[in-house]
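User: Show me sequence and structure for the first protein, then do the same for the second.

Assistant: Starting with the first protein.
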Amino acid sequence: MTLLHSLLHATNFSRPFLSTLVPSIGLAYTIQGLVAVPSIFAQTERFFDLSGSVTYISCTALSLYLPTIRARFAAAGAGSAKPAWPSILAALAGNGGGLNWRQVALSAAVSVWATRLGTYLFSRISSDEGTDSRFDDIRSSPPKFLGVFFAQATWVTLCVSN
């Protein structure tokens, strides 16, 4: 049993909201934790805002495609044909295809916003000697610095889950 299959099985709640929310929370904290560890050791916040954008986009994509991923794993386990990946264009045209056009439109808006903000903040910190004054008192304390990354994961979770 693969790790992905184990995670899908462990988060297969009877409520669709929880089946999508719990993996999104796990993904947000995993991404932030993976970026926090090297940032804490290097005492740099250079990738903080960029990791927030990547987390937003990743959780948004997961919420769109998780039902299909679950269906494909279930079909593979049963030996039947895997369902096709849903078409974003078909959803926007109103043809369904496994996605709701509202979710696709909102997901696209979040992705555009996260990309724009993340690239702007990353370019700003790259031109400002790699420091951000918000982190002057936090950067040297690993627990506080980790807390900031996990606060960002919480922020993404609260925004994406609504």
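Switching to the second protein now.
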Amino acid sequence: MEVTLQIAKAPSEGKQVQPEDVFMTCALTMVSLDPITKKPTNIAPLTLTSAAERALYARGQENYKSKKALKSSHILQKAPDAE
């Protein structure tokens, strides 16, 4: 599961966070491990109920694919070439 965090200055009561108040946005990936084998294990899938949830999920899938692509072309995974 990918979790995205946004760290921003607390807005005044009743107001939204403004882009200039955002200090940092980061993403991390959480993996469920089997307590005995310590290997990744499947968990119950998310139930997406709104268009906003589906959009966030799709964005997470795209991030996952791009990270996989970067990992496969990393210098420790593959010898350098003309690229």
